[in-house]
């Protein structure tokens, strides 16, 4: 009876978090329609204003509406984050699956190549790559993808190695199934759920990585609103107008927390070995 209650509680948490994610995504997609002002329009006459009926969260040093920039910044931050997650998921899963299934020299080369990336601190390596490519949103995603694909490759490789020798794989080979059919029909459907759980849990981490690079000036460039860069813009006014850093910081914190809790809930529900 207690186990049933615990499962029900976890499912309620999962549903609640899904609703929060849907609300967050809906607000992000509707930003162009619900933002009260143009986030790029400057007005020095309205510089550093406090909260008012016209500017609900105040203005920044260039007189731009802070609420509008937060809403558009959510669109930029989430778009970059989901783009990064999709890239590392596809690249890492493809590389790891092929390396484990075919094995041999290709597997050895790929794994030693991944060891090279693991030998360096990930964020430092990403900063170096982004610095070479130049500051921009796309280059930030590319730099982080170069670093983050390794984890998905190694996890997918370990999962494929564990099922490659299963009886149903041998039966498919004896039945005349081709290599690509075995991979797409029998291997990927068995490893994708675990990788999706990992990707969901990584959304928050990757958002923090993108915000970190943007804070350093390597991500989205002005005047594009992005939460990490908004923190960078507000640090010069931290003592006089702390709201310029508080609001973007809260937005990052809440969003990362929601996605981390969502990932934990999905893991608890889908993990067949979990004891409730």
From TrEMBL:
Primary location recorded for the protein, binned into one broad class: membrane
Keyword Nuclease recorded: no
Protein name stated in the entry: Glutathione transport system permease protein GsiD
Membrane topology per record: Multi-pass membrane protein
Family annotation (CDD domains): TM_PBP2
Family per similarity comment: Belongs to the binding-protein-dependent transport system permease family. OppBC subfamily.
One Pfam family linked to the record: BPD_transp_1
InterPro entries, A to Z: ABC_transport_permease, BP-dependent_transpt_permease, MetI-like, MetI-like_sf, OppC_N
Cited SUPFAM superfamilies: MetI-like
GO BP, sorted A to Z: transmembrane transport
Keywords, in A-Z order: Cell membrane, Membrane, Transmembrane, Transmembrane helix, Transport
Transmembrane feature ranges: 12-35, 82-103, 123-147, 240-262
Record domain ABC transmembrane type-1: where: 74-263
Compartment(s) of residence: Cell membrane
Keyword Transcription: no
A single Gene Ontology CC term: plasma membrane
